[in-house]
Amino acid sequence: MFNFTFHNPVKIVFGKDTIKELPNLIDPDEKILLLYGQGSIKRYGVYDQVLKALKGYKIVEFPGVEANPEYETCMKAVEVVHKEKINFLLSVGGGSVLDATKFVAAAAVYDGKDPWDFVAGNPKAKIKGALPLGDVLTLPATGSEMNTNSVISRASIGEKRAFSSSYIYPRFSILDPMTTMTLPERQMINGIVDTFVHVMEQYLTYDVYAPLQDRFAEGILLTLVQEAPKVIKDPKNYNVRANLMWASTLALNGLIGKGVPGDWATHMIGHELTALHGLDHAQTLAIVLPAVLKHQKEQKVTKLMKYARNVWGVTDKAEPETINAAINRTVTFFNSIGMPTQLSDYKLTPKDCQPCVEKLKKRGSKLGEHENITYKEVAEILELAA
Q1: Which CATH architecture has domain 11-179?
Q2: Spatial distance between the Cα atoms of 245 and 319, rounded to a whole number of angstroms
Q3: Is 181 helix (H, G, I), strand (E, B) or coil?
Q4: Which end of the chain has the lower number of beta carbons within 10 A, N or C?
Q5: Residue 94's closest CA among 338, 333, 282?
Q6: Which CATH superfamily is domain 184-384 in?
Q7: How many CA atoms lie within 13 A of 23 on its CB side?
Q8: To 5 degrees, how large is the angle CA 381–CA 95–CA 214?
Q9: Domain with CATH 3.40.50.1970 in the chain
């Protein structure tokens, strides 16, 4: 197991009717910028619950955050922060709204020329602080409610990039599974796939003898496999919703990734597909993950065997067949909950994705836990995803 430091300061407030806890979490003297998406929180009552809980607080609203939050939209929110002298940010919605809120929190106090620099990974662009923020989560998927990560898109240059900073940990996250009851099935499925791949990126790498982390990861994967069909069959089942919501948080709050290598090639390639073709984030992950596993069989053989045995119960086959069975069962699981797993399902070909390869080539990207996936291997992976 590798050396690591683990610190997570996020207060999680989990369960039914927890939105009413907001006054216990935000000082009444704070001036709040309330960020949300396209209006679903108003249609389904979450907005009213938030305003009722924060009655008497000074609140400025910023609606319209996109499903893949745009840099230009976020910068408009930064302008509002400065104009209105905002000193607390509250995200109400899914992980995309929270990612935008995290960016706004950092950009609002950034002393550099262009906040995009820290998103794009310019080594000279340092985040030195951020406004405090909290969130009411309505869509479990990204794990952003308990980590330091954010993903921002910039349509004008066709980029979707991730950044991280300890300054953008939420002060608190309210997780009420009741808020997820009205999610469209597509969003629910996206969240399950996103969570699944978050775990795989940290678990299915190479073995460094960290059995506890492996069992944590396998437990989350098994929970997803068990609960996903239930939530599709019975979407109003509170206990199923609660388990999926908590699994999503635990998948990316840092715990299962400590002391072990991380992959993240699937996410990096997936971000490029989203930026180029506008596919949902989870849709790209479902396309890319099986292809990455096929391409990296030799490098991942030990963990693929463990994954086959402990998640899918495959114990009666020789090594090559066991590995193929594990990958095939992953595909079958995604398909069983209505998630396609090939480029052709979206009428795309590897040739259509060539600009993604060119961007990674231009950046000199080296992906994967061994940094052995260059633009050449990405092209091969996309062929396997056809």
Answers
A1: 3-Layer(aba) Sandwich (3.40)
A2: 35
A3: coil
A4: N
A5: 282
A6: Dehydroquinate synthase-like - alpha domain (1.20.1090.10)
A7: 9
A8: 60
A9: 11-179
The bridge status of strand 159-164 relative to strand 149-154 is antiparallel
Largest Cα separation within the chain, whole Å, is 66
Segment 34-60, tens digit of pLDDT: 999 998 999 999 999 999 999 999 999
**pTM higher than 0.90, yes or no?**
yes
Residue 249 tokens, joined: 């948080």
Q: 180-238: per-residue pLDDT in tens?
A: 998 999 999 999 999 999 999 999 999 999 999 999 999 999 999 999 999 999 999 99
Gyration radius of the chain's alpha carbons: 20
Give 97's contacts (C-beta < 8 A, 6+ positions apart).
35, 36, 37, 65, 69, 91, 135
The model's pLDDT over 327-344, given as tens digits with 9 standing for 90+, comes to 999 999 999 999 999 999
Residues 6 or more apart whose CB falls under 8 angstroms from that of 30 comprise: 57, 58, 87, 88
